Amino acid sequence: MLGEAGRRNTEDTAMGLLTEKLLRAEELQEAFRETVRQREEERGRELEALKRRQEEERKSEAEEHGRYQEKKKSLEEAVRSHAFMVQLEMNGAPDDETRKTSVILVGLSGSGKTSAMNLILRRADQRYSPRDPHPGPPEPRPATTRCLGKELHHQGQRFLLVDTPELLDEDGAENLEVVKDCLALALPGPHVVLLVFQTGRFTQGEAELLAQLPKTFGPQVLERSIVVFTRADGQTSRSVERYVADAPAALRETVRRCGSRYHGLNVGESRSALSFPQVKDLLAGVKRLVASHAGEPMASRRFSTEELRKRKERRNIEDGF
After folding, report:
1. pLDDT tens readout for residues 141-197
2. Most CB atoms within 10 A, among 70, 134, 147, 218?
3. Is the same domain home to 126 and 105?
4. Are 222 and 137 within 8 A, CB to CB?
5. Within 10 Å of residue 226's Cβ, how many Cβ atoms?
6. Is 118 found in the same domain as 28?
């Protein structure tokens, strides 16, 4: 009996030791698996960090390439502009239709298109004076109902400004007759489009108008456009740069696609003295933009030049020219 008990005790002891070894082996195996898992997680984090760094580097390289391309384009435009201006000075500016720089003003009613056009016409060849040559409150201006062209001479160059009614009707459809009229009056151009917005206002209608512009004037329209922000009496005096920085995304994108060409115009009478240098800067910007394209007008494939020329002749007869 004692021998049997001793044998069982020995077996139990051996079984206990074996069980402990098995448990220890399982613990070691679990610890190994945990170590492997931690290393895999660490490797995953390292790979993710590497991917992020590579993505940031690619993004940085793309941004740097974009800045390089913009600088290159700006330099090329400056070279073309300088060459064109030198050629213009050497050859003179013949007083014929082909030497006009035609500018179309586009915007919704209330944006200040007509006020901007009248201000440009009034200020273009004035010398600066702190006293407004047209004192008194402004007369009410009715909404523009048809395209109207006005000429001005500025520093030996002829400009043709074309004011327009809204290019879209109440349903958002293009007013084709208005489009034909403004293109006809702008012959031999247009060379430049002024996109006019009232400072502090950007509506859904204006967003729709911007979306329509490539169809109306061609896909290159923003390359030939300058954004103009009008400011009337009683509006905030916040700088136009600050307004652009805080503007809705669609408007900021438009300014960017226009090559960041934008100007402010004080069209209110109370701050009219400030408009003198603004008009000078705007016309200088128009001249630079035209020169950067070697004086060539925007190409319009929607309507033939002959069709637009005949339409312009009819308008001239109607207007008594």
Report:
1. 556 778 999 999 888 888 999 999 999 888 888 999 999 999 999 998 899 999 999
2. 147
3. yes
4. no
5. 22
6. no
- The encoded tokens of residue 312 equal 């312009």
Angle between helices 176-185 and 305-318 (to 10 degrees): 90
Say which residues have a Cβ less than 8 Å from residue 217's Cβ, sequence separation at least 6: 190, 193, 224, 298, 300
**135 and 164 part of one domain:** yes
Going by their DSSP bridges, the two strands 262-266 and 101-106 should be labelled as unpaired
Question: What's the pLDDT tens digit per position in 2-48?
Answer: 567 767 777 778 788 888 888 888 888 888 888 888 998 988 898 88
Which of the listed residues 71, 92, 113 is the one where a domain comes to its end?
Answer: 92
Classify residue 28 as exposed, middle or buried by CB count within 10 Å of its CB (0-12, 13-18, 19+): exposed
Tally of domains in the chain = 2
Residue 109 and residue 77 share a domain: no
Instruction: Give me the long-range contacts of 72-76 (CB less than 8 A, separation at least 24).
Output: none
CA torsion sign, 227 to 233 to 239 to 242? negative
Let me know whether 154 and 216 are in one domain: yes
The angle that helices 2-91 and 275-292 make with each other, rounded to 10 degrees, is 100
One domain, residues 79 and 151: no
Q: Torsion angle of alpha carbons 176, 182, 187, 192, nearest 10°?
A: -110
Q: Are 224 and 231 in contact (CB under 8 A)?
A: no
